[in-house]
Structures are given as structure tokens and as C-alpha cells.
Amino acid sequence: MVAEAGVSSSTMSRIARYVSLVCIAALGAGIFLFLRNPAFDLTYAQAALTFGFIGVLTQVFSYRTGRGSMGSVSFIPVLASAAIAPHWVSVIVVAAASLAGQIVAKRDRIRTIFNTAQESFALALAILAYQAFGGVALHRIGESSSLSLFALFLVFFVTNSICVSGALGIVGDRSAWTIWKENTLSALPYDFLSLPAILFIVWAYSKFGPVGVFVFAVPLFGLRQLYKVTGQLEQTNRELLELMVAAIEARDPYTSGHSRRVADKARLIARAVGLRERETERIVAAALLHDVGKIHEVFGPILSKPGRLTPEEQVIMRTHPVKSAELAGKVTELRDVVPLIRHHHENWDGSGYPDGLKAEGIPLGSRIIMFADTIDAMTTDRPYRAALDAPSVRKELLRFRGTQFDPIICDALLRSLEYSKLFAAKESEATLWPERPPERGTVLRVETA
User: Fold this and answer.
1) 281-290 residue pLDDT tens
2) Cα–Cα distance, 33 to 24 (Å, whole number)
3) Distance of CA 277 to the CA centre of its chain
4) Could you tell me how far CA 347 lies from the centroid of its own chain?
């Protein structure tokens, strides 16, 4: 196996072992399911093939949700197949459908093998859980208990997310448990909103057979289109924000890329203090926009000036958090991050600006951005000094702990493994399995960037 760009040979070796382990687990679960009921049932096969074909279509029409991330609603026919035909035949057909869909979509070999194995493994365990809680082959809605359907749904998604989090943990050199908590706990409520769609497909099959399913499966593709448009709009909004920030920073050659770096560092610091993914992303958005007010014409001559600023110029520059907050506040979707932007220069001891807030009166996100902003400034070359290294930055953080910096965040950051990543060289974007949060309402897969 040839190592891909940005991925070391040792990581590739670990990935290969991990994929092999998932394949063995899938095979073992499938065999166990077969031994429970080895008889071949043509009715089960018909249902499995019907939903398998729909699953292939949903995979072929999957959509890109961002760099290295794909969205699909293929889990809906997969779980409908399990509810109608909780049998080893369904696992085989789903595996074949997954394999065919990814071959048609031209996924590379290791991803194809992994995605097929982990989806088959998740489905086999889900069917076993379904049976354990009294689930039977459904011919009418209501023949199985709601608890068995809940078990089917929950086991499938939890197993799927654990398998994918393990893969992302290997590539990103992070704890799989941390990735699972960040990605899955916030996504499960959205996933459960898909349960009515699964029950609807089950009803259509039990009432009208395969033909009825294909007629009533049209809403699946409408749902897919809705996910697609929503995902594309969110991605476009993020890219427009980054474009605007890049345009502002182009006025100052010494801060080019500063806001993007501060956003990246804010994400690492938020993880170091144990924040949930949703709150982390809110802080990252505020960090990206923390200097957006510098687009105002009053800052132009100052930003283009070489050397240190005069006291008068420093007074003007101290107004930029207010102007940044005012500008962000004009966008409805950004109003919840306005306080984080306004107060990112407040000091723990109350000596900061613009409002002289102190201690826990400063929004938590602002305190985190203060760390990220200061660390980026210290690790960037300036005309009047060279960039500081990691040990020097540590000394400065400890020196101003309790005056400029929140002491609790400071201690948590310096203890955390995330601290060293603040100084890591920028890695290639062409990672094997990019680490991104899952799209809401989709089965997780590792996709080609």
C-alpha cells in the first residue's frame, strides 16, 4: 500500500490494521447472525434487494458538504431493510450495495473497504439488537415494539460513529473518544429526526410492495436535495466570511492569515478546556471575525504604517473590537458571537478594553480568543522582534497568568496535549481521512477529499 500525501507510512500501517480489524468484526457479526437463522427466505431477499437498489442510488447521488466531507441519506433504506427483513440476507445485500455505490462514485480502495465493512458491521449489530428487544419482520407498522425500533436505530448509529471516530483518531493522532463525543452527541438528535422517514418507507413497502417503495421513495431524494442545498449554503457562508477576512488582512502584510490562525488556535484551546463541539464552533466563528472591524477606513493608515504606533494611534486601534462587534451584529446569524468579539481584549484583572470587564465577567469565548490571539502574535515574526518558540510562549503565559489570562484556562491549556499542536507546522490539506464533523442526518463514511 502506497502512503498518500500528508500521511506517514506508520499511520498508513495503523490504518490498514484498523480496517482489517473492522472487516473481521463485520464478518464475525455476520456469521453470528447467519447461525441464528441460516434459512434463506425469498421474501427477505426481495425486500433487501429493493432497499439495496435504493441505497445505491442515494450513494451515487451523495453530495459534497465541504472539503473532505460527503453527505448521503443512504441509511434510510438500510434501516428500513433491517426493519422489514432482520436477516443475514439484508447484511449481504447492504454490503454489496455499499460496495457498488462507492465503486460507481470512484472511491479509492481503502475507503471503499472500510466504509463497506463498518456499515455491514453496524447493520449486523443493529439487527441483533432489534431481535433482542423483540423485533420481528415487519409486514404492518406496529408488529414490533417501539423499543426494538429504537434499539435498531441507536445501535446502528453508535456503532457507525465509533468505527469512523476510530479511523479519524488514527489519522488525526487524537483520542477516538474525544472525536466521538464531539461529533456524535450533538448529531444524534438530528439523526433521530430521520426515524419517521424510515417508518414511512417501511409502511410503503408493507402496503404496496417494491413498486410502492419506489413511488414513495421520491421524498428521499427531496430530502437529499434539502441537505445538499443547506450544506452548500453553510459552506458558502463560511467561505465568504473567510474571503472577507482575507481581504481585510491584505492591508497589513504582517497579519496576513492572522484571523484564520487565531480561529484554528481557538479551536484547539476550546478542546483543551473540554468545551462541546457546538460551543467550540461558536468561538471559532467569533475568532475568525475578531478583527473584522479593521476594514473601517480609520484603521487604514495605521495598519499600513511600519514600526511601532504612537499613543494616539494606539487609542484608535483600541476601538477595533467595538467596530468588529458592530459589523458582525448586522448579520442576524452572527449576533450570538457579538459579545465574544467585543470583549476579546479584556484582561482577567480588569485592565483590558473596551469595557474593563474582569474575571468571569468576561465571556468564556472572549477569554479563549485572547489566548489564541496573543499566542499567534507571539509566534509571528514582526519587524521589531523574531517569533517566540514554544518554551518562550509558555513562560509568557505563566508570567501573565491571573493578570492578562484566565488562570484556569492557562493551567488546562499548558497541561493539555493540544498545547503542542498550537506550534505544529501547517500540515498538508491532502490528509487521508480529513477530520470534520459529520453532516447532520447522514450516516458517517470516510470519503475522498
Assistant:
1) 889 989 988 8
2) 14
3) 8
4) 31
